[in-house]
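Supplementary Methods S3. Input chains for the assembly prediction are listed below.
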Amino acid sequence: MLPQSVAHAVVPRHSKQQIAKKQGKRSLCYILETIGATVDYPRNAEIYGDGEVVEYVYKVIEGAIRIYKVLDDGRRQISAFYLPGDVFGLAANTHYRFSAEAVTHSSVFVAKHSTLKSLALQDPELATELWSITARELEYIQGLMIMLGRKNAQERVMGFLLDMAGRAGSSAFELPMSRQDIADYLGLTIETVSRNFTQLENQLTIKLLSSRRVVLCDQDTLAKD
Amino acid sequence: MLPQSVAHAVVPRHSKQQIAKKQGKRSLCYILETIGATVDYPRNAEIYGDGEVVEYVYKVIEGAIRIYKVLDDGRRQISAFYLPGDVFGLAANTHYRFSAEAVTHSSVFVAKHSTLKSLALQDPELATELWSITARELEYIQGLMIMLGRKNAQERVMGFLLDMAGRAGSSAFELPMSRQDIADYLGLTIETVSRNFTQLENQLTIKLLSSRRVVLCDQDTLAKD
DNA sequence: CGCTCGTTTGAGGATGGTCAAGGCTGGTGG
DNA sequence: CCACCAGCCTTGACCATCCTCAAACGAGCG
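Predicted structure tokens for the full assembly:
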């Protein structure tokens, strides 16, 4: 669901750098910024819901988005966090099978899924790019699968921090999400996540400036597998 | 790696039903069967290895394939089983990040990934189909992720059996894979899998004709989530 | 018959979950 | 400027689930 504001937000915003970055006039980035609108979501706002008909494709400009599913009994699994630059909403065929929410106040480009699909049918390069983005996402999720299936709590937390550092491009970064979000992403409880943060800090592998501000000190230890 | 036999197996085999099923002359199925070769792999043969350059795309004709990754210390996570009709090898971009092996003696169509990619660049419908297949696979893996992250051992085993029944199209079917394979797929140990099979049989939810031959008796119980 | 390989079963222990309480921080209002 | 409150995070004690280690079982095959 889009907030009302979208109705008035149909003026596309062009960012020279962004367009230049992902070269090509017909690239997905260009298209999203040309035919898309910029929409803002406040913290915890729903972007789309599990079971809804697919309507838009999104690209994060600012903030952070969580993709998740909730089981009947309330258990929640987060399947991905999307950060600035990430594209999401491509994976679904007709209906979303997950929900998406803003972790923090976020701003995203949105473009009609149907428009993108018809453009893709005329433009094989675009279609191939869509395939490629989806394939990369699949590979990413397979990595998460290994964490969930075969790694213990500390390895999961370390893997998560390394991933976040990589995406931030720095060994010092701020986590946009809560411990609960991290727990639901790593298949753990909030207490286990918290205990492992503390433990990593005690063994001088990381440093916590605040509960959300992390500095990785010993990347070698973290990167063991 | 392809076994030697592939050099001599370049004669395409056409199956009228298969072509008709996935309509369209330019559909992936048609292409795989036209430009592809049929290759046989014996039980446990490697089809490709983690880290290798992507060379082929595959479609299972007969048998079963497992996609997996092994960590340094030997822990193995299987990310998917592919059964007759399934296409795999589309997800990788340049290098495989997983390995593929035949679970049982298997026969597959193989087509050059590069050929497929260049066909896709001329044919938006094909490119869109490749996107769509990859998207479906992503959705499937997200389902597995929920199992690994948020479900207990019995729920995982039940979910696995339901999935296999669905793919077999029958509530009575034969498992091509060992308990060890199932354990490595579900993020459990072989003992836990075995105990849960026994327990499900004791509570009359399933019936085991042999260790590999399963009949689902009480689908309602199995399908709780 | 007596292998071997895969599976099942059992006993004990470790990891992570549950429940409960206390602490920190940032925002609001007196 | 301080007091209070709410939300988030941490810590502790106990417990359940699943893992580990070990042994026995059973089907297939020489």
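The mean pLDDT of chain B is 88. Chain B has eight helices and eleven strands.
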